[in-house]
């Protein structure tokens, strides 16, 4: 796979030309609208949601049919992939790619997210909206806020305790840690019910409780304890690794912003995002998020239109001299892991430095 990139200008510079650059996105938006790429695709989403729903039914049918059998681990792995596809469907619903109206989008998002996979729609919406507004901004984007992992050398220098230990080896630990991401989504969703920003928290809580109780009850009623625990961990591990493999290539290792560093909307979205090249199988596996640049520019664009939009956006960025980065899936993981290793350097140097006498 190859990497196509145009050397980007600084994310912000004294000679911004704000009045001119402020219209760059408007001109691109007109081209996209004239191509008809913002139209809804009800037929596509009817088929897609039906197929994902059938896969979910097939998975649970296999689970109850097999009963006490170690073949259940194959079902667990399959269900991890199905939960990933459900999360991608919830993502499209939240961005109003499926329905124009807010109410229909919220109802669909809560059914798929809270009830289907045990992930709070309200929690995810709050977090993801802030990410879209300021991608890769270290103070404003929750996806690059320091936690267990650090995303910049400044964050690494401030890391102590467990984050400090993990930060030294985070490139090697990244994919193993993703096996816990499914559990993290469930825990974060429940904890978010206490947050003041949460709307319809009673409904959100009821749907989450229904999913979690039903899920755990099904495992321990149908399977003996040891097998149930094995199913639980494998299912959530595959789910977590799948989600992480989809989302990590999108921004990790791309330029980050700090403080008042805020270029115009087009450059803020394009220069901090990475596209993943591939064919129809990549489009299905990554749910269209392999066109991350186009998705960030037009978040309510139906995912089947993103491939066509890419041609327009890439050509337009070339006209402006704006960096447009795309690479293969494995190469995108490699770039993200290289970035994680580099930002952990201060922690490794700190460990090697002799203690003051």
TrEMBL record:
<feature type="transmembrane region" description="Helical">
    <location>
        <begin position="229"/>
        <end position="248"/>
    </location>
</feature>
<dbReference type="InterPro" id="IPR012171">
    <property type="entry name" value="Fatty_acid_desaturase"/>
</dbReference>
<feature type="domain" description="Fatty acid desaturase">
    <location>
        <begin position="69"/>
        <end position="327"/>
    </location>
</feature>
<keyword id="KW-1133">Transmembrane helix</keyword>
<protein>
    <submittedName>
        <fullName>Fatty acid desaturase family protein</fullName>
    </submittedName>
</protein>
<dbReference type="InterPro" id="IPR005804">
    <property type="entry name" value="FA_desaturase_dom"/>
</dbReference>
<feature type="region of interest" description="Disordered">
    <location>
        <begin position="1"/>
        <end position="22"/>
    </location>
</feature>
<keyword id="KW-0472">Membrane</keyword>
<dbReference type="Pfam" id="PF00487">
    <property type="entry name" value="FA_desaturase"/>
</dbReference>
<feature type="transmembrane region" description="Helical">
    <location>
        <begin position="70"/>
        <end position="90"/>
    </location>
</feature>
<feature type="transmembrane region" description="Helical">
    <location>
        <begin position="202"/>
        <end position="223"/>
    </location>
</feature>
<keyword id="KW-0812">Transmembrane</keyword>
<feature type="transmembrane region" description="Helical">
    <location>
        <begin position="45"/>
        <end position="64"/>
    </location>
</feature>
């Amino acid at each position: 796979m190859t990497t196509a990139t145009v050397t980007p200008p600084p994310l912000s510079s004294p000679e911004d030309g704000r009045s001119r650059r402020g219209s760059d996105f408007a001109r691109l938006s007109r081209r996209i609208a004239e191509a008809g790429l913002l139209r809804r695709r009800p037929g596509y989403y009817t088929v897609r949601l039906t197929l994902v729903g059938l896969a979910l039914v097939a998975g649970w049918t296999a689970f109850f049919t097999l009963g006490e059998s170690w073949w259940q681990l194959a079902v667990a792995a399959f269900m991890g992939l199905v939960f990933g596809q459900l999360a991608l469907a919830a993502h499209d619903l939240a961005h109003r790619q499926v329905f124009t109206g807010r109410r229909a989008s919220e109802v669909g998002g809560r059914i798929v997210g809270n009830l289907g996979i045990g992930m709070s729609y309200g929690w995810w919406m709050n977090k993801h909206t802030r990410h879209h507004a300021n991608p890769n901004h270290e103070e404003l984007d929750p996806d690059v806020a320091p936690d267990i992992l650090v995303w910049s050398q400044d964050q690494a220098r401030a890391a102590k305790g467990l984050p400090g230990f993990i930060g030294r080896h985070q490139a090697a630990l990244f994919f193993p840690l993703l096996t816990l991401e499914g559990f993290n989504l469930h825990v974060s969703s429940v904890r978010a019910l206490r947050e003041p920003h949460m709307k319809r928290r009673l409904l959100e809580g009821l749907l989450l409780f229904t999913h979690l109780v039903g899920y755990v009850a099904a495992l321990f009623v149908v399977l003996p304890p040891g097998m149930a625990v094995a199913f639980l961990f494998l299912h959530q591990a595959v789910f977590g690794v799948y989600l992480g493999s989809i989302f990590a290539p999108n921004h990790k290792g791309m330029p980050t912003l700090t403080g008042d560093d805020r270029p115009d909307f087009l450059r803020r979205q394009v220069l901090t995002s990475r596209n993943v090249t591939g064919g129809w199988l990549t489009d299905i596996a990554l749910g269209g998020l392999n066109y991350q640049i186009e998705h960030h520019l037009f978040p309510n664009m139906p995912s089947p239109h993103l491939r066509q939009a890419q041609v327009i956006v890439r050509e337009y960025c070339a006209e402006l001299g704006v960096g447009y980065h795309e690479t293969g899936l494995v190469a995108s993981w490699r770039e993200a892991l290289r970035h994680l290793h580099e930002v952990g350097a201060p922690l490794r140097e700190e460990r090697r430095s002799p203690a003051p006498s």
